[in-house]
């Protein structure tokens, strides 16, 4: 995906974006052997960039869909020595980090990338990306509880009411548990657990099944796959506000 030259230079550590613009205007930058003296030029990953005769080394942008297991921290490191999501990508040349987080005891779909711009956009609350979770909860969930989840429940964080699309997938009357699907577009801390707790059904097990149009099809826990160019484009489209 083409990006502005000064942004690519800044991301590669050449200089700040403002300083990179000054280098371009001063004729210090070449793209594919041609001197660039104007702002607004866009470059692709295979374009060769030189600054003052020195080649700019760029890190390839990578995008992965990861099936996070339970008992793994959604972080690049952990001071307690617990397993983290980046441990699963140790054989990859590029350093990646998670887009958002899933709780230690929650499994499911997690995006991993080194594209900070996309990650920040996807995590911003105004870009409403739907996420579907499947939860095993205590008790037999009745219609009244589903109605409250759909219309909104008050959480203890003092912010506006949280709501989502909710439905029961199955019951286990013997063990008095239910399997519930809940789709939300926010990402408050422990939101799904807190919403279900608020309607009287504490979560026993939780998994994120979808993120926007993406799902876990073809993966088992601990596996990942690279996103296609089309999927990356769709994610950018999701994170672009409608006018």
Automatic annotation (TrEMBL):
InterPro entries, per database record: PsdUridine_s_RsuA/RluB/E/F_cat (IPR042092), PsdUridine_synth_cat_dom_sf (IPR020103), PsdUridine_synth_RsuA/RluA (IPR006145), PsdUridine_synth_RsuA/RluB/E/F (IPR000748), PsdUridine_synth_RsuA/RluB_CS (IPR018496), RsuA_PseudoU_synthase (IPR050343), S4_RNA-bd (IPR002942), S4_RNA-bd_sf (IPR036986)
Write down the Gene3D superfamilies for this protein, in alphabetical order.
Alpha-L RNA-binding motif, Pseudouridine synthase I, catalytic domain, N-terminal subdomain, RNA-binding S4 domain
The chain positions of domain RNA-binding S4 read 3-61
Recorded GO MF terms: isomerase activity
Tree of life domain: Bacteria
Q: Name one Pfam family in it.
A: S4
Q: Which UniProt keywords apply?
A: Isomerase, RNA-binding
Which EC class is this protein assigned? Answer: isomerase
Q: What is its EC number?
A: 5.4.99.-
Family recorded in the similarity comment: Belongs to the pseudouridine synthase RsuA family.
Q: What is this protein called?
A: Pseudouridine synthase
UniProt source species: Ligilactobacillus faecis
């Amino acid at each position: 995906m083409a990006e502005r030259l000064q942004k690519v230079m800044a991301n590669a550590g050449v200089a700040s974006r403002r300083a990179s613009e000054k280098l371009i205007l001063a004729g210090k930058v070449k793209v594919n052997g041609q001197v660039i003296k104007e702002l607004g030029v866009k470059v692709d990953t295979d374009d060769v960039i030189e600054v003052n005769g020195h080649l700019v080394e760029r890190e390839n942008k990578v995008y992965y869909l990861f099936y996070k297991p339970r008992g793994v921290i959604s972080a690049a490191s952990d001071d307690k020595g617990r397993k983290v999501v980046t441990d699963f990508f140790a054989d990859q040349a590029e350093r990646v980090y998670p887009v958002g987080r899933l709780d230690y005891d929650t499994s499911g779909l997690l995006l991993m990338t080194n594209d900070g711009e996309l990650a920040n956009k996807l995590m911003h609350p105004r870009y409403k990306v739907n996420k579907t979770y499947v939860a095993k909860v205590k008790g037999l969930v009745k219609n009244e509880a589903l109605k409250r989840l759909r219309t909104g429940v008050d959480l203890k964080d003092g912010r506006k009411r949280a709501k989502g699309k909710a439905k029961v997938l199955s019951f286990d009357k013997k063990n008095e548990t239910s399997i519930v699907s809940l789709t939300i577009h926010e990402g408050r801390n422990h939101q799904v657990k807190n919403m279900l707790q608020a309607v009287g059904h504490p979560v026993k097990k939780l998994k994120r099944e979808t993120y926007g149009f993406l799902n876990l099809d073809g993966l088992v826990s601990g596996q990942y796959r690279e996103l296609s160019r089309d999927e990356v484009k769709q994610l950018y489209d999701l994170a672009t506000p409608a006018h």
